[in-house]
Amino acid sequence: MSSSTPAVRVAGLGKTYRIGLSGDRPTTAVEAALRWARNPVRRGSHELFDALDDLTFDIPWGEATGIIGRNGAGKSTLLKVLTRITAPTRGRIELNGRIGSLLEVGTGFHPELTGRENIYLNGALLGMTRGEIRRHFDEIVDFSGVAQFLDTPVKRYSSGMYVRLAFSVAAHLETEILAIDEVLAVGDAEFQAKSLAKMRDVAKDGRTVLFVSHQVQTVTALCTSAIYLDKGRLAYEGDVAGALDLYRRSFEKFALEQRDAGTRPGSGELRAIDVEIGEDQLEPDGEKTILVRVGANPKLIGSYFVSCHINDVNGSVLVQCDSRVVGGWYDAATEHTIRLTVRTPWLKPGRYTVDVFVCKTGVLDAWEGAAGFEVLPHNPYPELAGDEALTKGLVLADFDYKED
Ligand SMILES: Nc1ncnc2c1ncn2[C@@H]1O[C@H](COP(=O)(O)OP(=O)(O)OP(=O)(O)O)[C@@H](O)[C@H]1O
What we know:
The chain contains 9 helices and 19 strands. It is of the alpha/beta class and 404 residues long. It has 3 domains: 181 residues, Rossmann fold, CATH 3.40.50.300; 67 residues, no CATH class; 115 residues, Distorted Sandwich (Coagulation Factor XIII, Chain A, domain 1), CATH 2.70.50. A 6-stranded mixed beta sheet has the order 6-7-8-4-9-10, with helices on both faces. Strand 9 and strand 10 form a beta hairpin. Bound molecules: adenosine-5'-triphosphate. The site of adenosine-5'-triphosphate (ATP) has 16 residues, from strand 1, helix 1, strand 3 and helix 2.
């Protein structure tokens, strides 16, 4: 690897999916909504969707580069294209070294083979000799902590064991470039910390790490540079702080845009007018009340229902709540304010967002990020408010729940 040529060079890279075919469908309503918002073009009889569009960038040697962007921005697709899991539709990729990867759990290993056999298989696929693999074998096994199960087929591994071994193989085999997707979040906290340290060492050795994550803290801790993708396009490349700033601002911008019902997905025959949370600061086990005011459309025949998602900061849906469960169907002839109450689960302190859907047979209105709330660290002495309780030493100050 010469330092004058970059580790990765990408020029005019694009990936277009043909959508509407089985297996290519969006998996969630929000996903469908996001696609709709990106105005897929119809070319001929197919609907084509640009998951990546005209990306051009270089990644130098020794960088740990974070790939940041909102859900559906194209982060995983970019890693899949770089690692040749999927072919690009346009453009050019230059990898000036071998690339090891850890993408979705379940890819990369052969389920019927044992841990030991998979280590050799992976090494061979990366073009390594048996001798080279043997040299790293012990450190791979030690790091992964799955020594006891080395001769067990990996299909019997838990997802945590699987990820530990897969990460260990990817990080220890001598590939010059390492591509890791969010998947590490599957492991326990201790393993995540150990993996981050390992990735930092890999970059210090002059190799290059590409890392996809929604976790702002992890990106800050690991990465030395970042690229920010927005709807499949490269919106920023540079330092981590700049990329994270854009990422944070995209949520505010998106929330503002979504207030304008005309920009939201859905048939529009009926729209939510307003969404409120009973209280915007809750205890971890507090009841979450979501009030959805829905307008009227006397021309709409039949009744509708509402549902909502509660999402964590990473955009994962934690709770889905649906008025149909309690027989909540509403007549569109008049305006209604519908109350959805979620009594469980216990939520860890942090910031949550709420998506609201007004539906009949299809989606009439999908309002992503319609409201948000904060779950506070539990105060066992509610008679003393926040700071006062802390200064009196009554509340444990070392809660581990630092959200960004
Ligand atoms: N095989 C496929 N066929 C059709 N569309 C696809 C396929 N794979 C991904 N897409 C679409 O391409 C877009 C980008 O997906 P990708 O998984 O790369 O995004 P991401 O930024 O990694 O999102 P997330 O943060 O949610 O994982 C999404 O809208 C997704 O639905």
